[in-house]
Design a protein that fits this description.
The structure is a single chain. This protein is α+β, with helices and mostly antiparallel strands. The chain contains 5 helices and 8 strands; from the N terminus they run H-H-H-E-E-H-H-E-E-E-E-E-E. The longest helix is centred in the middle third of the chain and has 91 residues. The radius of gyration is 66 Å and the shape is rod-shaped. About 10% of the residues have low confidence.
Length: about 280
């Protein structure tokens, strides 16, 4: 082959500029049409509108709602009433407990005061009995000395040789002896228990004579008489006449009847058992 022979090229043949221009024009026209259509499409579209309907309350639903509200209010009011009632019950229980505690303390104080008073009265009676015993001993010694000096002569007027009670004195003596065996109770005036002045007062009432209630006032009545010249019905006293602490009734024969103390009660005893300090005659 000649070196001048034509050798075919392996490269693709070039497209002519006219064909490229035609193709570009067509493509541009198509793109322009699409662009115009896209731009015009939204402008001419109908707007979409969505409406949401709210539920409407009918008459039955309104009635039910009103009932619920009323029931709620009633329940709230009932709760408030229950709480108020509970508070009142709690307050009442607290007050009752305080009152009970106060009453118990008052009862205990009262019992203590009564016990202290009983002890004081018992002590006073014991002291009085002791004084009376010492006085009796002194009186007995004095009487014994007097009997020795006069040779033991009995003039018929001594307290150990009195006659029988008559008249009003008999009523007094009979009543006093009828109470022998009854109990002694401080402040008692019968009919089954007595203190010393209560018994004397009741006995003299049998004779129509009203005596004062207490022993000091009773021993201040009438006229003073000697223990050597006693008569049935005379009032015996222990202590001073204006301030005696014990009284009894002389019943004759050298004896007296008296409400002595809680241990003995009402007894009939010889004057030697507990010699009195003095005597008065009211009849």
């Amino acid at each position: 082959m000649s070196h001048t022979a034509h050798i075919p090229s392996h490269r693709k043949p070039r497209r002519s500029s006219s064909k490229l221009a035609l193709r570009a024009g067509v493509a541009g026209g198509v793109l322009s049409t699409i662009a115009v259509a896209g731009a015009a499409g939204p402008a001419n579209a109908e707007p979409v509108t969505e409406t949401i309907e709210m539920p409407t309350l009918n008459a039955d639903l309104s009635t039910d709602l009103s009932s619920v509200v009323a029931a709620s209010a009633e329940a709230t009011q009932q709760i408030a009433l229950d709480e108020e009632l509970q508070a009142q019950e709690n307050a009442a229980a607290t007050k009752a407990a305080k009152d009970a505690k106060k009453a118990k303390a008052e009862a205990e104080r009262k019992a203590e005061a009564e016990e202290a008073q009983r002890k004081a009265e018992a002590k006073a009676k014991a002291e009085a009995a002791e004084r009376a015993s010492r006085s009796a001993e002194r009186t007995t010694l004095s009487a014994s000395a007097g009997d020795s000096e006069d040779g033991g002569q009995d003039d018929g007027g001594s307290s150990y040789d009195s006659g029988q009670a008559t008249g009003s004195a008999a009523a007094i003596v009979a009543f006093a002896r009828a109470q022998v065996g009854d109990a002694y109770v401080m402040g008692s005036t019968g009919p089954n228990s007595w203190d010393c002045s209560g018994l004397v007062q009741a006995a003299y009432r049998q004779a129509g004579i009203d005596l004062p209630r207490v022993s000091g006032d009773q021993s201040s009545r009438g006229t003073s008489v000697s223990l050597d010249n006693l008569q049935p019905g005379d009032i015996l006293y222990w202590g001073s006449r204006s301030n005696s602490y014990h009284v009894a009734i002389y019943v004759g024969g050298g004896n007296f009847v008296g409400a002595q103390n809680p241990g003995t009660g009402v007894v009939e005893r010889s004057l030697d058992y507990d010699m009195p300090s003095g005597a008065v005659r009211v009849l």
